[in-house]
Amino acid sequence: MEFLETLYNEIVGFFNFGGLIEIIETDNYKALLTQDGIGKALGPLIPVLLLVEIIRALFYRRLTFTQYKISFFTYVFNRFISRFISIGMVGLCIAFFEPYAIFKTEFTWYWFIYGYVVWEFAHFIYHFLGHKVRLFWCLHSTHHAPEYMNLSVTYTHFFLEAPYADIIRTTICILLGVNPSLLFLIMFIDGTWGAFIHIGENIMVDARLGFLNKIILTPSHHRVHHAKNPLYMDTNFCNLLNIWDKAFGTLQDEKHEEAIEYGITRPMKSGDFLDAYFGEITLLLKDVYQAPTLKDKVLYIFMPPGWHHSGNHKTATIVKKEYFESVKL
Ligand SMILES: [Zn+2]
Ligand SMILES: [Zn+2]
Questions:
Q1: Confidence band, pLDDT 50/70/90 cuts, at residue 156
Q2: How far is the centre of ligand 1, averaged over its atoms, from the C-alpha of 127 (Å)?
Q3: Nearest to residue 217, comparing CAs of 196, 238, 233, 198?
Q4: Which ligand is nearest to the CA of 128?
């Protein structure tokens, strides 16, 4: 019985209905006008969309468990770990770095715009390093392991990725003066959009969102980010505003002639949870162990994925360069 109760609580928790039920039960609809109330009301949005996605796939007989397998086991595993470890870095970073902020900002619309631009910058830094530093790639690669795109991918993260992302993003925002209340609002908007951009082809075949594709980062851009095609590798690091991808030259539109192939470039055991979750860490430990010198051992940890002590590198930068040279021929 205890198992069934746990299962029930997990399902209710996953769908995030708690806040909405509380508003209805207490008749406190005025709460919907507050930031907290909006957050509670929109809590179930992504989980319900995911359910719609799965039901649609079932209806059109397009559903195979393989498409959801890695995400499902990752979610279950992370929930299990969270019973023992919970690492909330946002509050700690705010408390620690707020006294060192270069200036203070208020909760106003213009500081909101400033905060969002700074947040996107901080997100870009965390995400870029997640692809370019091998140790951080070990934390981020689980998110890139699924070979399909659907809303369940939004739940597919190594359990230490959130604290790593939170430390970098919160610290940068707080040091650059973003007001903590603004930061929470931005995190909520960006988190919701960041989940939505994983919407699958099953619901949205063309995810360019029309003219919006020119202005913001659309699900189509994020599909490109999840692709292992050399043209698409290491592009579109932003989340909602694509300004920093534009500024750093990493913005890449989806091309009709270049069909997306999801996943990571190394040979993977298809749909294997353990490989998706621990595969990169195992390979890094192996490389560090086998590296001939101490310097090489350290370089393996901090150089980009694909770096090799022999000089025979297979980093994304090199793979892309070779690809562009081959298409020029
Ligand atoms: Zn990524
Ligand atoms: Zn993603």
A1: very high
A2: 6
A3: 238
A4: 1
pTM, to two decimals: 0.91
Distance CA 292, CA 309 (A): 8
pLDDT at 254: 96
Grade residue 329 by pLDDT with cuts at 50, 70 and 90. Answer: low
Say how many Å lie between the CA of residue 233 and the centre of ligand 1: 9
How many A from CA of 278 to the centre of ligand 2? 18
Backbone φ, ψ for residue 149 (5° rounding): -115, 125
Cβ(12)–Cβ(32) below 8 Å: no
CA 13–ligand 2 middle distance (angstroms)? 22
- Measure 314 CA to ligand 2 centroid, in angstroms: 23
Q: How far is the CA of 153 from the centre of ligand 2 (A)?
A: 7
**Please, is 215 exposed, middle or buried when counting C-beta atoms within 10 Å of its C-beta (0-12, 13-18, 19+)?**
exposed
Share of residues in the chain with pLDDT > 90 (%):
67
Residues 23-65: tens digit of each pLDDT:
888 888 877 777 777 777 777 888 888 888 888 877 776 677 7
In this structure, which ligand is nearest to the CA of 264? 1
Q: How many whole angstroms from 308 Cα to the centroid of ligand 2?
A: 27
The token pair that represents 62 in the structure block: 């397009």
